[in-house]
Amino acid sequence: MQRRLVMRRVLNGALPLALLVVGALVGLAGIAVHELWWGQLLTAVAVVALQLAATPGWQRIALAVGWLAPLGYAMAERPEGDFAITEDFGGYLLVGLSVLAILFTTATLSFKRRPAE
Fold first, then answer.
1. Rounded to whole angstroms, how far apart are CA atoms 81 and 105?
2. In angstroms, rounded to a whole number, what is the distance separating the alpha carbons of residues 84 and 73?
């Protein structure tokens, strides 16, 4: 019984870290293919599917942070003076998808309420 409890706590702690890595990989892949029409569709489906598959709370937060970290880095100006995310429909769609991921993550957070005293 004690061993199962320890394993459950370890897995509950490791899952958000794994989802952080998965979110970062999906973000990098989305940046790589955001100029192609099928890449935009594939990125949107992947982000929505991952957000719906994760439970509200730390899992969705980890996915959103993992997704946004490479996007935030790619939206910064490069030394050459250009950006990794283009200023066209694909780039704006990628940024809009990021905003929707943040909104969905925060809207579905569940807070434990304290009983009234």
1. 33
2. 9
- Residue 19: CA count within 13 A, CB half-sphere: 25
Query: What is the residue type of 30?
Result: G
DSSP state of 34: T
Q: How many CB atoms lie within 10 A of CB 5?
A: 9
The C-alpha atoms of residue 114 and residue 99 are separated, in whole angstroms, by 31
According to DSSP H, which parts of 1-117 are helical? Answer: 2-33, 37-53, 58-75, 89-107
Confidence of residue 24 (pLDDT cuts 50, 70, 90): very high
pTM metric for this prediction: 0.78
CA 70, CA 57: separation in Å to the nearest integer?
A: 21
> What are the CA-CA distances from residue 87 to residues 32, 34, 75, 96 (Å)?
14, 11, 10, 12
94 and 29 Cβ atoms separated by less than 8 Å: no
Domain range summary for the chain, segments of one domain joined by +: 31-107
Residue-level pLDDT at 114: 65
Q: What span, in angstroms and rounded, lies between the C-alpha atoms of 111 and 48?
A: 22
